[in-house]
Structure formats: C-alpha cells, structure tokens
Amino acid sequence: MSASLLSLEGRAAIVTGAASGIGAAIARRFAAAGAHVVAADINAQALAALAAETQGVTARRCDVTQAAEVDALVAGTVEQLGRLDVMVNNVGQSAPGWLKDSTDEEWRRVLDLTLSSTFYGLRAALRAMLPQRSGSIINISSGAGFGGAPGLATYGAAKAGVNNLTQSAAVENVRSGVRINAISPGAIETPAILEWARSLPGGVPAYQATLLPGRFGRPEEIAAVALFLASDLASFVNGAVIPVDGAASARMAAIEAPKEALINLLP
C-alpha cells in the first residue's frame, strides 16, 4: 500500500464533535496525515487543549444543532484555507429509556444532535465541495441504526436517518466528484460509553464481557477507517455505511447462542 495514497497533505478538513473520543482521534489522525484540521465542538476548553497539543489543528467553537453556525463554520474554513476537502459529521447523543416514557423534549434533542446536525454539516459541505468537484464527507453512524434495541428507539431512529441520508446524498451526487460515506462504530471506549457502562450491574468489566470481541473498540480504530475514506485509496467507495464493530453486526440476529457456549468457542 502506497503511503502517499493515505496522505492528506495540504487538504482542509473539518471534524465536528472533536473535543474528545472519536472526533478527537480523527482530528489527530488527519493532522498526522498532513491535513489542516478545523476541530469543532461546543467544549471550547477541550478544543483549545487539542489544538495546543496537535500541530495542524485549529479550534473553533460550533453548536452543530444550529444551521447558521454550521454554515458559518464551513464558510470560515473555506475563507481561511481556500477550500474544504473533508467533512466529518461526528455529533450524536442517545437518551436511553423506554419509548413509552420518552418525552417530546428528549425526542427533539436526540434528533437535533444526531440527525439534524449531520444534515446541516452534509448540506454545508456539499455547497462548498460541489463547485470544486471533489471532496469526501464522512458521517459517523451507529449499529443502533440497523435494528431495534430496547431502550434506544429514539437514538436508533436518528442513526437510521443518518444511514439513509448518507446513501441518498451519495446517489444524488454520484457524478459530482464528492463522495459521501458513513462509519458505523460498535461499542467504542469513549467517555460517554464508559460513564454509561459504570452505571450497569458489574460496571465496565461486566459490560465488556458481553461484547462479542470481549473488549471496547478504540477511537483510534475508527479514526483509521475515517482516514481511509478521506484518502485517495477510497476513490471508488461511495454511499457505503461501514461497520467497525469487531463483528458485532455480523452475528446472526435470529440465533443467539448461550453466552457460555460462545465463550467456549473463542480462542
């Protein structure tokens, strides 16, 4: 594999939700590959720390639930760097709980943070990229968007929307030179999921033991796939929703083996 094909040297990228977790890992990986990265989030303090420690990263506060702020983020990046080559839409939030107990406010908040934010980022990036006839847009989805899960109806519906939005945009712009793809992470070791896992019986170790690969994925493992999608190596990858989940989505849903039997099969 040619290292030059994975290079983002001289390219301009935006990564939203970049203050921590997957977004921060993607920003660091892109910068290491030579991109100038505009890292966006509402957490200005964490963004400043990321920019201070990572050459090639510029911090910009942005509330991605506000279309005008996303438009200004993209316009400011194009004004500063002359173009936009990569856009990563990486903001989402769940509100775990039974559907019958969900409030209107929770529904709107999850949709705003997860689906509307992706729509705003995708739309603004397309408007910048289509005239230059090149670019890569990467949406961060979730396995929750592929099937039902107790307590995750709102989040799953929003992520299913992200998947369809990705595919529809790719088909709509297929001959434009702009590629639109999504990554569907499994359980990744981020601050949010660790906090949630600690609240469960047995805490983090017990939850990890239920995961098919027996461990959390690392944010850097998602960042590696994002780098591929942003690079010239992915020149014919368009409209894909790529699971990066340690085989979680590959398991046959109709037959769930007893945990003891599964453990006995693992090396």
Verbal overview:
This protein is an alpha/beta fold and 267 residues long. The protein has one domain (3-247): 3-Layer(aba) Sandwich (Rossmann fold), CATH 3.40.50.720. 44% of the residues lie in helices and 14% in strands. It has nine helices and seven strands. It has helices at residues 21-32, 44-53, 67-81, 104-129, 153-172, 191-198, 203-210, 219-230, 259-265; strands spanning 12-16, 36-41, 57-61, 86-89, 135-140, 178-185, 241-244. A seven-stranded parallel beta sheet has the order 3-2-1-4-5-6-7, with helices on both faces. Strand 4 (86-89), helix 4 and strand 5 form a beta-alpha-beta unit. Helix 4 runs parallel beside helix 5. The longest helix has 26 residues, at 104-129. 42% of the residues are buried.
List keywords for this structure.
Rossmann fold; seven-stranded parallel β-sheet; alpha/beta
Number of domains: 1
CATH class: Alpha Beta
**Beta-strand fraction estimate:** 5-15%
Strand order of the largest sheet: 3-2-1-4-5-6-7
Number of helices: 9
Overall average residue pLDDT: 91
Instruction: Give the termini distance in whole angstroms.
Output: 30 Å
Can you tell me the residue ranges where pLDDT is under 50 for at least 5 consecutive residues? none
Write the CATH architecture name. 3-Layer(aba) Sandwich
| Fourth-level CATH superfamily | NAD(P)-binding Rossmann-like Domain
CATH topology: Rossmann fold
The rounded Rg comes to 18 Å
Tally of extended strands? 7
Structural class: alpha/beta
What is the helix/strand order?
A: EHEHEHEHEHEHHHEH
Task: Classify the helix fraction into a percent range.
Answer: 40-55%
Q: What is the assembly state of the chains in this entry?
A: single chain
Q: What does the largest sheet look like? A: 7 strands, parallel
| Global outline | globular
